[in-house]
Amino acid sequence: MKRIFALLLALTLAFTMTACGGNAPAATPETEPETVSDPQGAEVNVYVLSGPTGIGAMNLWARSDAGETANTYHFTMPGANDEVVAAVSGGEADIACVATNLAATLYNKTQGGVSVLAVNTLGVLSILAPGEAPAAISDLKGRTIYSPGQGANPEYILRYVLTGNGLDPDSDVDIHFVGEGSELMTVWQSDPEALIMAPQPVATSLLMQTLDSVLPAVKAFDMTEEWDKIAGGSSTLMMGCVIVNNQFLAEHPDAVAIFLAEYADSIAAAQTDVEGTAALCEQYGLIPKAALAAKAIPQCGLTFLTGEEMKAGLSGYLQVMFDANPKSVGGAMPGDDFYYGA
């Protein structure tokens, strides 16, 4: 009965969204793709990156493997963003779970060839401190901060939060960037007085590994909360999303609507069945160990936001990224057609 209800809901969404015109750009009669009705689902190629943006898809992956979904999903987990960019640009990926700024970059790279279907991950960054947490961000003056993500979301988020608390990121703190989050444990061991800004699940791993040390790591600041204090509702820290290839959307609108319903169920399952989802994260190679995933998942800001709510928060976030560095979103702000269903 649940599957039947989900399918009926999906078909209702499909009718509503297509009746409203959707977000696919208008095509001339010579180039207009053939629309295929998929009331029983379709074959869908889905790309997910390891880490928080892929967690919401784990239950969907398992249900598809068990033949319990209306669509048939073929999942691929590439090792780097470049592979996702190539797959989306080349048409191999129909749907992909990516960072929000990468989604905007792909929109510009493909000249409007992708749309964002839903935001799936809010902020996943925390600042960890040795032993005792500073009382406020302003107390970080004169401290050393290690972080991954130079020239990417983490750097701009850190700068936004520091600046919003009256600190100059270039003179009041000493920021050192590492290549990958996995390097932060080595940093902690070599510089025990430093602060570390880490994404999930790296932050949780550090907290677990240093628990018995002389100065165990403590979570000093949740960057999502710190962002909200500054933004005052003008934007939301939205770090992960799901995008669709607009050609696939134009040809298979029913299948995309079905995906949204089934994906929403998958995220809900991740939020309510943490242990089961953690086991799937290990099974499919998203996070190395289920025990780590189980502790990290509640800290990953899993969500499912669509339509106007998605557009309001995400456009504000991308504007902050653009203002920091236009290249971070592909050189230009995405147009309204970027936001599916809005």
Commentary on this structure:
There is one protein chain. This protein has 342 residues and is α/β, with parallel strands linked by helices. It has helices at 2-19, 52-55, 58-65, 81-90, 100-109, 153-164, 184-190, 202-209, 223-231, 246-251, 253-272, 274-283, 290-296, 307-324; strands at 43-48, 72-76, 95-99, 114-122, 125-130, 144-148, 174-178, 195-199, 217-222, 238-245, 302-305. It has a six-stranded mixed beta sheet, with helices on both faces. Helix 11 (253-272) crosses helix 12. The chain is globular. It starts with a helix and ends in an 18-residue tail after the last helix. Residues 1-33 have low confidence and may be disordered.
What is the overall silhouette?
globular
Oligomeric grouping of the chains? single chain
Number of domains: 2
Could you describe the largest sheet, including whether it forms a barrel?
Answer: 6 strands, mixed
Full CATH superfamily name of the largest domain: Periplasmic binding protein-like II
Helical content (DSSP H or I, runs of 4+): 40-55%
Q: What's the average pLDDT?
A: 87
Q: What is CATH's topology name of the largest domain? A: D-Maltodextrin-Binding Protein, domain 2
CATH class designation of the largest domain: Alpha Beta
Structural class: alpha/beta
Q: What is the chain-wise order of helices and strands? A: HEHHEHEHEEEHEHEHEHEHHHHEH
What is the strand content?
Answer: 15-25%
